[in-house]
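Hey,
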Amino acid sequence: MNGTVPGGGPGPTPVILMLPGQGSQYPGMAHGLYGTEGVFTRVVDEVLGLLGAEGRRVREDWLAERPLVDIDDVTRAQPLLFALDVAYGTLLASWGVRPVALVGHSAGEYAAAVLAGIMNLPDAVAALDARVRALATAPRGGMAAVAASPALLQPWLTSQVVVGAVNAPSQVMIAGPEPHLSAVTDALDAGSLTWMRAKATTGFHSPSVEAACASTRPAYERIAYKAPRTVVVSGYTTRPLAEPQLSDPGFWAMQPARTVLFGPALSHLLDGEGPVGGGPFLLVEAGPGQGLSMLARRHPAVTRNGSAVVPLSPVRAGAQLDIKQLATVAGKLRDHGHRLGHRAPSDTVTPTTPSTREREDQRWTATAGAA
């Protein structure tokens, strides 16, 4: 599976797709692609269309200058992150790029499951709808990034405020309901630990959402699970998704309440003894923002094996920034030996109209692509 870095070797550098989750959203994200990139637009419309009237309200708030419901609210962030992750992944597939593996952070793993064919889009969206409605009833809370190891944080943790995500050896997220979370962050200040609030109004990946998640199990029991077409390394088990977790409704239903182990999952994926060899790889972040790209660039294996990292999204909102970033990624893929199809942009930004390549776009909507 190994390719080569630019300059020689037998084939293109293998691509690993990274899909971000809660906290990566920002106002104006991907506005420059909606209505101009046909594949992207149609996938977003398909996801939001499956959500019916609520999907229309989600779209309106996403595109509004002054949304009625804030984008960080669970009822907006969760469906939009899923829709955009799947749309970005499908757009990349429409260029002819086939990743050797996918890894998602938090809700990004759910998008990875669709892109890899573990579940079909209508089933996944139906369960997502149940998940969002349930999480909206959970106690108000939040998450915070802390520059510390899980072990170092132990004295400050409680039964309600726990480690919600391990992103790197000394970079974790704590999560929980209010006022418990604020009490812990105040204590961290007193202990001179560096922390920052994450963009979440719910205590994801903490006991405060367990009851809500458990109530969604029936929705996941209705899904017909299939073996993945592409390796998906789970951010919950840190290993490739396989039975018994693969088709376990409880595994999928309880993900928003479980600890995310993205750092260890990425380490396993980049390990020479891992499921796709030791690289070098081209790690492409397919979703809003560049948070996972920042984590990946700091990973010692990326430097050690000559891998490269590139995000499909800019770090901030801007229509031209969105379009320019796609051209940057296309150029990076070509530099790494990938022969892209005619749908891919040139390395020089050329604005397109919604009707451009319309017939080719149609075939990428019904299945939301395939990694």
